[in-house]
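Working notes for the structural subgroup meeting. M.R. asked for a predicted model of this chain before we commit to crystallization trials. I am recording the input and output together here so anyone reviewing the notebook later can reproduce the run.

Input as submitted:
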Amino acid sequence: MAKVPRNFRLLEELEKGEKGLGAEACSYGLEDSEDLLMSNWNGTILGPPHSVHENRIYSVKMHCGEKYPDEPPTIQFLSQVNLPCVNPRNGIVDPSQLPCLAQWKRENTMETVLIELRRYGYLMESPILRVSVEQQMATRCDEY
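Returned structure, recorded in token form:
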């Protein structure tokens, strides 16, 4: 099967993000509409209900390198957030700590990552779920 070129893939993601066709709790779009390489993106994650993150809005910066979608984007929280996968000093997400980034598949999207970050925050609140969060996240990542 032929691979969709990087720019076509990013155009699809841009259209979906701009038209609000994705998940209700996440949004994303280009940081600069003049960025012809479509490398730098902004994202927003709404905190999940019934959690310490409820009613909070988290802003992230995403960078899609030359090898995207074969390689995952880099993600940096611009908002302060307390998650084990996020470096508290600079807000950068450690890809080895988030299964969707650690086990990246070409089919994954920036929206996939935003949704998983939202779920990760929710799952990490529960001491029972925290023990098996990696297995749950890896399973959910396969659903996309």
